[in-house]
Amino acid sequence: MKTARSMVLVSADPESIRRGSEKIYSTFQEELSQLGLQDEISLSWLSDSGRHNALPMVVIYPEAVIYGPITPEDVPYIVEEHLNKGRIASSLVAPIHELSGRIAWLSSRKGTLPAEKRIVLERAGIINPEDVQDYILHNGYKALGKVLITMNPLDVLNEVDASGLKGRGGAGFPTGQKWRFVSKATSNKKYVICNADESEPGTFKDRLVLEGDPHSIIEAMAIAGYAVGADEGYIYIRGEYALAQERMRLAISQAQELGLLGDNIFNSGFNFNIHVHSGAGAYICGEETALIESIEGKRGEPRSRPPYPTTNGLWKKPTLVNNVETLANIPAIIRKGASWYRSIGTPKSPGTKVYTILGNVNATGLIEVQMGITLREVITIYAHGMKGNSTFKLAQTGGSSGSIIPASLQDTPMDFESFNKAGVALGSGALLICNEDTCIVDLCKVLVNFFKNESCGKCNPCRIGNDRAYQILSNIAEGVGTMQDMKDLESIEMYLYQMSNCGLGQTAGTPIKDTLSHFRAEVEAHIKLKICPTGVCRMSGHKVN
Amino acid sequence: MIVLDADISVKVHKAVQDAIQKYGASDDELIPILIHINHDLGYLPSQALEELSVIFKKPKSKIFSVASFYGMLSTTPVGRHVIRFCESAPCHVVGGRVVFQALIDVLKINPGETSKDGKWTLLTTSCLGICAVGPAFIVDDDIYGNVAPAQVQTILARYE
Ligand SMILES: Cc1cc2nc3c(=O)[nH]c(=O)nc-3n(C[C@H](O)[C@H](O)[C@H](O)COP(=O)(O)O)c2cc1C
Ligand code: FES
After folding, report:
1. Of A49, A171, A289, A486, which has the fewest Cβ atoms less than 10 A away?
2. Best of A166, A173, A182, A195 to mutate for ligand 1, by most ligand atoms within 8 A of CB?
């Protein structure tokens, strides 16, 4: 590949395309070739930056200057000033408060924000995701080479074990241990599945990896296959992620062409192939056994466990299921070693965590930081504070099954152990930050509505419990709730937890439990005084059946 | 133009054959096949499920039970354009409720309904994975984020 003096990236997420970034791209092409700069300056697309207020945007390296929002008319000026004369076109530079996620990380390198720590999203947004060469130039497939040439499967298992990596799909299960289970299962056929169903409300971290760095997942799956003795993999991507599916398919065909997938990879005798499988709109298919049922062409209803997928998974064969973010850590761990990985994060939760920041804050988006940062730090540093100087009331972590965290817990370090101790769940890394205008009854109702709609309907506690809880909360929100309703909610929460078949039902009661333990007075105001303190609920006095 | 039943039947048959051609008739391709047909025809007509039941050697009820499980598949006809509005919490707390009300006001239909002229179907959905730009909805395959109630009319006017 040629090396270019500068690199120009034009944002290519759907919103930018809608606002005309294709025209911006073609104007760059014209302008550059007019000035004869097309060989000196490379032009490519920038995958989703996780930041959307300054779109369409243009990033120019090596200075890492971010321009946005840009119109096609601005392009000649940028080319003339920045690329021809070497001066930053400061009037078009994106305002810093509009930036976060990947793009803010770039700014932080220039010293305007505390730096994030990027492992999972190291390349996303920097490389051209549709060009395998670019991935290879950025250390790509080095780890796979190292594994196949210098390590035996047991070495790989030991390395992953020693890294202390824990699953990022929600449960935090030690990854090395899971790999060992699958490795120990005896069978002539095993599978590796990458769980990219990502349907937890508020979560889109996996999408950015799939769209921005698809080869890292291929590399990680092949390493996992080698370690556990599997020769076939599936990536189950939710149906709504059309671009991610497209990029992944392209990446797989590129890897096959270069012999990085297929038979006898690197002459090692190791074979590995990967299929992309589309979901069709069902949150429950993120649960690993439901996901397996869905690949087999059935309704996505979770199986009873045990037996676990590690021994009886896809087509009843031993199957390793890992989340996208978990897998994205693997190549770096292999390349740089377990002790390097352990030096990041906390002793019991090493590594980084990707968070999506949402809600009533100044800057929403995505960050990757060391495990153990606190909520207060996230809000003040990365989210640039609460919107309009409002007051922080609560945060909801980990999508709908996560906990509701009251302001009093905002200094708890966010790692698996500290959160467990405080009785809250880290979940998938979504942080929905709400101010004092948020009504707890209304929020809880929305969260329960999600479970009501997404329950697969197979087991009664979950199907009926969520429906009934929604009805009760609706009545409280209409001002016709009774004190008995609160008791009923408590017992529904308990039954959901104790009697549901799978993780969906078992955690569906968490928002109810947290609401009643941290915000009981606010709920009682709806019932006893018939007022909604935030003025959100309608309190119409009509009963909902 | 009056479309004869025979025409529809030919169209359905072709959609099924195209999908089988593309994916092959193995169990792990059933859902991709259903997605393909649903995309071609807007929904999964009874005849398509019938044909798949013969091809896959499974009872039609089994195929139906799969088709009816997934949110992106529909076993009943829908309008020319389908709106899926995100009703999950992150979109809700940043103003989703008022945008949804604006949609209902402009379309004059309730969630789950299709307009009388057959143009619009309004559905709610769980998180679409574009929460940083909530409130969000999709029209057919187009994504709209950061929507304010006043924009609803303009967005919908883009569709024939
Ligand atoms: C209702 C439900 C939904 C889930 N959704 C996802 C998901 O979208 N993505 C994911 O990776 N894991 C999800 N999980 C967790 C998976 O079952 C599984 O634990 C995970 O994929 C294992 O990967 P890890 O060990 O790398 O975390 C879900 C679990 C439940 C109970
Ligand atoms: S919550 Fe609406 S898109 Fe995620």
Report:
1. A171
2. A195
